[in-house]
């Protein structure tokens, strides 16, 4: 591909169970420190494990009144967006808002708000339901509130491709820049789905880890004894610009998004295609978009949820496709699975991996699934030369893969 098609990452922000900013998140992930714990808010549920964001306070940044009127999935995202914009060295007071877009992903909007207000209606009557119910829980408010916060009046949308949503949002944002629809895009995702009802649904599906006796080891991507994922919450926002524009304003380029691929398994409502054909198609599309081949990939930040079927399908695909054996990691061993925000968080962590030249470990990997022939990092490892892929796959067989390169 030509450098004129490059899209630069000039800023990033993170709010995750590993930390409430990019620095603390990176330290937690690089240190392989799992965040899964028993969740008192899930008392009475069949599974009580989660990875919560702790120490988070949006009041100072957003004001207590405004923060109270926002669902957590929006609060997480606005805080991450403020960090990203500051990191990019941009001043919203001076930009042309019509040329600034917002593309964010989430899987479910604000289910916590819905559940709380439903209980209010049952206990106190319909007249007690908050008039803010819909404005707080609608998924599109993720982008709408971000636009309000930063005066971004360009293209504004939320994409929902289940657990691929955050990565899809970054891919769509890249397209908007290359089509010259925007000069700057705030792209990423936010999620806050750890509620009793949602977790009951995941538990009934058999998707969650039951390792409550040792919560810290519950999320164990690619491990032979994995038994399900641990749900998490959080957000990530990247500031994207055309690389030429970033260079023109002497911005620091943290990494480049050089390819994006998307596909559908068209196989099952929740299970991935066992042969990994859909995710392979997305990988190949991302590489073709980057003008690269499988031999050009040095690192893969895998979707790696810690579920038996997903890890097997993805791991087999990686082993089959990459004969040179890129170094693989899944950061979900530390953070848990942030669902619709996961792809955005992992894209940001892939940017940091390239920038700092170190691949974070896959926490809790004691014994690699014997059916897999891949190189998975279990300790901080030097990042090989070449492209890095960030894989994200979702219910419904929706796949999104981002190809990133060093600055």
Please report the distance between the alpha carbons of the first and last residues: 15 Å
**Which regions contain 5 or more consecutive residues with pLDDT less than 50?**
none
Major sheet attributes: 11 strands, mixed
Strand order of the largest sheet: 5-4-6-7-1-8-15-14-9-10-12
Question: Overall mean pLDDT score?
Answer: 97
- The assigned structural class equals alpha/beta
**Strand runs, count:** 15
Give me the strand/helix succession: EHEEHHHEHHHEHEHEHEHEHEHHEEEEE
Roughly what percent helix? 25-40%
Q: What does the radius of gyration come to?
A: 20 Å
Percentage of residues in strands:
15-25%
Question: Care to describe what's here?
Answer:
This protein is of the alpha/beta class and 407 residues long. The chain is built from 14 helices and 15 strands. The chain has helices spanning 22-30, 59-62, 64-68, 72-87, 111-124, 133-137, 141-150, 165-178, 196-205, 243-248, 277-290, 308-321, 332-335, 342-356; strands spanning 7-15, 37-38, 49-50, 100-105, 156-159, 184-191, 234-242, 255-264, 297-301, 327-329, 358-359, 375-376, 381-382, 387-394, 398-406. The strands form 3 sheets. Strands 5-4-6-7-1-8-15-14-9-10-12 form an 11-stranded mixed beta sheet, sandwiched between helices. A two-stranded antiparallel ribbon has the order 2-3. A two-stranded antiparallel ribbon has the order 11-13. Helix 4 (72-87) crosses helix 7 (141-150) and helix 8 (165-178) packs across helix 14 (342-356). The longest helix has 16 residues, at 72-87. It is globular, with a radius of gyration of 20 Å. The mean pLDDT is 97.
């Amino acid at each position: 591909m030509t450098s004129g098609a490059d899209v630069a990452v000039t800023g990033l922000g993170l709010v995750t169970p590993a930390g409430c900013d990019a620095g603390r998140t990176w330290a937690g992930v690089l240190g392989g420190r799992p965040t899964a714990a028993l969740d008192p808010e899930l008392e009475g549920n069949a599974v009580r494990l989660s990875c919560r964001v702790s120490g988070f306070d949006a009041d100072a940044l957003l004001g207590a009144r405004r923060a109270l009127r926002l669902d957590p999935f929006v609060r997480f995202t606005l805080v991450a967006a403020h960090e990203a914009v500051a990191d990019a060295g941009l001043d919203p007071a001076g930009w042309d808002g019509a040329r600034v877009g917002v593309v964010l992903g989430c899987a479910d909007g604000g289910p916590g708000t819905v559940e709380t207000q439903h209980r209010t209606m049952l206990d106190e009557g319909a007249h007690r339901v908050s008039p803010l119910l819909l404005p707080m829980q609608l998924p599109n408010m993720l982008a709408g509130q971000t636009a309000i916060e930063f005066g971004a009046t360009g293209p504004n949308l939320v994409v929902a491709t289940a657990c691929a949503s955050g990565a899809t949002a970054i891919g769509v944002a890249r397209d908007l820049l290359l089509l010259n629809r925007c000069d700057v895009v705030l792209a990423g995702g936010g999620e806050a789905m750890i509620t009793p009802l949602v977790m009951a649904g995941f538990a009934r599906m058999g998707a969650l880890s039951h390792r409550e006796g040792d919560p810290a080891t519950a999320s164990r991507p690619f491990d032979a004894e994995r038994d399900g994922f641990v749900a998490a919450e959080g957000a990530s926002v990247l500031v994207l610009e055309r690389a030429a524009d970033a260079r023109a304003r002497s911005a620091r380029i943290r990494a480049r998004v050089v390819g994006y691929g998307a596909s559908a398994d068209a196989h099952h409502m929740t299970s991935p295609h066992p042969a990994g054909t859909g995710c392979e198609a997305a990988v190949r599309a991302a590489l073709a978009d980057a003008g690269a081949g499988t031999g050009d990939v040095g690192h893969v930040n895998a979707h790696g949820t810690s579920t038996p079927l997903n890890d097997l399908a993805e791991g087999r695909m990686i082993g089959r496709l990459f004969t040179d054996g890129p170094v693989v990691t899944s950061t979900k061993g530390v953070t848990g699975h942030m669902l619709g925000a996961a792809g955005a968080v992992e894209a940001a962590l892939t940017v940091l991996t390239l920038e700092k030249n170190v691949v974070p470990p896959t926490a809790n990997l004691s014994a690699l699934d014997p059916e897999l022939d891949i190189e998975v990092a279990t300790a901080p490892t030097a990042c090989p030369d070449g492209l890095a892929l960030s894989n994200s796959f979702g219910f419904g067989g929706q796949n999104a893969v981002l190809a990133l390169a060093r600055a």
